[in-house]
Design a protein that fits this description.
alpha/beta; 2 domains; seven-stranded mixed sheet; six-stranded parallel sheet; 10 helices; globular
């Protein structure tokens, strides 16, 4: 007599070029040090294109994307004592670390040389149940819904964590380039930190939203020279570049004030062009920033809970994962897309 195997729905990429397809998979069992999560919501992030298009080297297929996961603990693997069944948890981009490399031994888990990434190193949240290393989990505050929590575990932590380490103080001029999936959260966090926030967008239609989100000033980069406008305001202490446009980032560098920093979180592949003398005069810097650890994610969720920072979200059911992904890739979503289970 055959033993019935529990199955679930998942949106997987069978191989590069096939796109996302809904399949039936066996519900995975957690191994030692792992936790099984019943997924309630999962954000659809632009980085999921790395899986769909196969641009991240070494991904084994089939693979289920998703690194903005919110759900509840469903089962515990051997040796896991720090989480309990039924507890609300999330998993972000940082999907685990080895704890033994040079960086981990110094507590720099964010830069672990063997970091795991949810949805790339192992199957992510585009499914009804997923398994993740226990160290990748983040507790979700009770007042945050699963849908609200999901995008904060990638876009949220990236903007929050970058800004809180940028060196700006309350009252400093901080510019946010781009009013999209990252930028609309960056403006909210910058406002909540007490910065003098300048939002930089393309076109006058973004001004009303930017100011509603907390911007004190709106600069239309299509109608004016944004760097010159920032200098009229005294020069920015930080410019956070969220739109993946290296040419726009290069042009904005001139808007920095003394000791200013161009903080790059929008992932582009062509060079940023800055003359050495621009760095030297005024002691300016360029820094990249990627997400953070689960502890940083926990800080992000609690700060967002405290100050009312929320993403603007469009939701799709899991069955429409391909449609949700296409909507995200179109650039027309306002502003994050989240799958619900």
């Amino acid at each position: 007599m055959a033993i019935a195997v529990a199955t679930m729905k998942a949106a997987q990429v069978s191989r590069v070029g096939t796109g996302l397809e809904i399949v039936e998979r066996e519900v995975p069992e957690p191994g030692p040090g792992q936790v099984r999560i019943e997924v309630r919501a999962c954000g659809v992030c632009h980085s999921d294109a790395l899986v769909v298009e196969g641009s991240w080297p070494g991904i084994p297929y089939p693979r289920i994307p998703g690194h903005e996961v919110a759900g509840v603990v469903d089962a515990l693997g051997a040796g896991v004592t720090e989480w309990r069944k039924g507890q609300r948890v999330g998993v972000g981009w940082h999907g685990g670390h080895d704890g033994t490399c040079r960086e981990c031994r110094r507590g720099d888990f964010r830069n672990c040389r063997n970091q795991k990434i949810a949805g790339i190193s192992y199957d992510g949240g585009y499914q009804q149940f997923m398994v993740a290393p226990a160290e990748a989990l983040v507790p979700i505050p009770d007042s945050l819904s699963d849908v609200d929590a999901a995008p904060l575990l990638c876009a949220g932590i990236t903007t929050y964590n970058a800004l809180r380490h940028a060196g700006a103080l309350p009252g400093d001029l901080v510019a946010v380039q781009g009013i999209g999936g990252l930028g609309h959260l960056g403006i909210q966090f910058a406002f909540a930190f007490g910065f003098n926030v300048a939002a930089i967008g393309r076109g006058p239609e973004n001004e009303r939203l930017a100011k509603k989100l907390g911007a004190n000033v709106y600069i239309d980069s299509k109608a004016t020279n944004a760097a010159e406008e920032l200098q009229k305001l005294g020069g920015a202490r930080v410019i956070m570049a969220t739109a993946p446009n290296s040419k726009a980032m290069s042009e904005l560098f001139g808007g920095l004030g003394p000791n200013g920093k161009l903080l790059v979180i929008g992932a582009a592949f062509d060079p940023i062009e800055v003359a050495p003398v621009q760095l030297i005069v005024g002691s300016k810097t360029i820094q990249g920033w990627a997400a953070g650890t689960p502890a940083d994610s926990e800080d992000t969720l609690r700060f967002a809970e405290l100050r009312g920072v929320r993403a603007m979200i469009e939701t799709y059911p899991l069955d429409k994962a391909a449609e949700a992904y296409a909507r995200m890739m179109s650039g027309k979503a306002e502003f994050r897309v989240v799958l619900t289970m």
